[in-house]
Q: What sequence folds into this?
């Protein structure tokens, strides 16, 4: 069984690595259509359209113009998500994502952070480095 540390992951916008990523998550989903008929004794479903979405948490870096700076609200970006790193043989997911909400936060005794939420438009493709 393969295991991976969270510190191996990285995110790229196109070919540019996003700076100061603390964590990221993404979900793949499918719409479900109910096909249950009146005479059925249990629910039944078929899958329909698939999609994906997620978020990226970073320490805010205003100098990262090709990573964090490319993720402006409403922007369409090529997002590449590397859960296990970018070494030869590692798996990654890639697709076009629309940037939704951007949140920045700061507090005494803490780093200034930025959170970027995204929604995929089109399919999410898996490949190997």
A:
């Amino acid at each position: 069984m393969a295991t991976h540390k969270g510190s191996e992951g990285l995110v790229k916008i196109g070919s540019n690595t996003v700076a100061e990523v603390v964590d990221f998550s993404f979900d793949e989903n499918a719409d479900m259509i109910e096909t249950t008929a009146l005479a059925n004794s249990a629910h039944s479903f078929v899958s329909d359209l698939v999609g994906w979405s997620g978020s990226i948490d970073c320490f805010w870096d205003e100098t990262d113009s090709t990573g964090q700076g490319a993720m402006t609200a409403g922007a369409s970006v090529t997002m590449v998500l590397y859960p296990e790193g970018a070494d030869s043989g590692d798996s990654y997911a890639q697709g076009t994502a629309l940037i939704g909400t951007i949140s920045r936060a700061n507090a005494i005794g803490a780093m200034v952070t930025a959170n970027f939420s995204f929604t995929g438009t089109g399919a999410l493709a898996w490949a190997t480095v």
The chain has a mean pLDDT of 96. The first strand starts at residue 10 and ends at 13. Residues 19 and 61 are 7 Å apart (CA to CA).
